[in-house]
Amino acid sequence: MVRAETDFAVVIPQRRLRAIARRLSVWYAQNARDLPWRRTRDPYAIWVSEIMLQQTQVDTVQPYYLRWMKAFPDVTTLALAPIDEVLQLWEGLGYYSRARNLQRAAQVVVQKHDGILPASIEGLRALPGIGPYTAAAIASIAFGADAAVVDGNVKRVLARLFLYEGDVKSTGGVQELQALADRLVPQGRAGDHNQAVMDLGATLCTPRRPRCEACPVRTSCLAYRTRAQESLPRSTRRKPVATRKALIGVVADSERVLIEKRQTRLLGGLWAFPFIEYVGEANPARIVELRDLLEARCGPVLRQPPDLLGEFSHTYTHFKISAQAWLFVPGQTGEIPVGGAVWVNPAQLAAVPMSRLDRRIANMLSRLHPEQPNTNP
């Protein structure tokens, strides 16, 4: 049975916590991962890296970070950039609200803080897209604040070190582990300490088959002593993600293709092919519904029935999308699209930000017109 928050954190002797922190410090000095954002003290660069690292693995982030910093080397450049350029550099990284919030926050920093990122946790929390974890990470790494971070890696390390058997994803579990992390962080060295714990979780104290023989704190680890490494941390099992179905209308020929900018919260600001969602089977009536939507956007479309371009699926955090893309040939009326839709040359698709699913469709479409290559840079 898990003890109360204050009991769980306080009963652990401070001398034991100091010993663990010292061993982590020595280990990190010799084994720290060489990451591009660790080669700078620029708070803006550290901020960008922390936003990109939210729910995204380090190996995935590195090339995006390097391209981003080349295009937007400072907060003012980002604040003034066209949103399409911002989203295109983010394309494929997912969770696009992070990119939108990053630019909105940059604009706030320029307008209200003379282009200087706030150093305090409170000031950072006031910016769009920065929550408790990210604020603590930036404040400790960029500004030396004595703030402890608790992410998935940290939760796993702490749960094993101190044999924490509560649900690490519950509100109470997060509070208990945060209280413990606050006591563990050494004053004046929070930045390196936080990164040491995260590196330990990423490289040695992994979810499966942890490399305990190489761990610098294994002699202090209660899970190691009791052989409970594989069973910790504990959390509620995630519910299976629901599947949503969609029909995507690709109105295109060798000279033009119809796209529209999403106005929804999910993938907002990205360009997409028009689509409808449905329940049940993709029967002929659904195709007619899709055709009606397309004709409402751009006038009559030809070819009955349309050609099936392909079937696609993609999994997001809370649901999976299963889609069919249908190819329609546009009419020759020359009508101007409505409802936010526009005509572009197929070759221009490479220059607009799209979701991974829409990009796959665009790449398939480009193979129908090889004389107009469409490769995503």
Please give a structural write-up:
This protein has 15 helices and seven strands. The protein is an alpha+beta fold and about 375 residues long. The protein folds into two domains: about 5-230, Endonuclease III, domain 1; about 240-370, Nucleoside Triphosphate Pyrophosphohydrolase (Alpha-Beta Complex), CATH 3.90.79. The strands form two sheets. Strands 4-1-6-5 form a four-stranded mixed beta sheet. The termini are far apart.
Describe this structure in a few short sentences.
The chain is of the alpha+beta class and 377 residues long. It has helices at residues 5-10, 14-31, 43-52, 58-71, 75-80, 83-90, 97-112, 121-125, 132-143, 152-161, 171-184, 190-203, 222-226, 284-298, 356-368; strands spanning 242-251, 257-261, 271-272, 275-278, 301-315, 319-330, 341-344. The chain has two domains: 5-231, Endonuclease III, domain 1 (Orthogonal Bundle); 242-368, Nucleoside Triphosphate Pyrophosphohydrolase.
What features would you highlight for this structure?
377 residues, 3-stranded antiparallel β-sheet, alpha+beta, 15 helices, 44% helix, 4-stranded mixed β-sheet, Nucleoside Triphosphate Pyrophosphohydrolase, disordered N terminus
Mean pLDDT: 89
N-to-C series of helices and strands: HHHHHHHHHHHHHEEEEHEEEH
The CATH homologous superfamily name of the largest domain equals Hypothetical protein, domain 2
Number of domains: 2
Look at the helices and sheets and give the structural class. Answer: alpha+beta
Report the CATH architecture of the largest domain: Orthogonal Bundle
Shape: elongated
Unreliable residue stretches: 1-6, 372-377
Radius of gyration: 25 Å
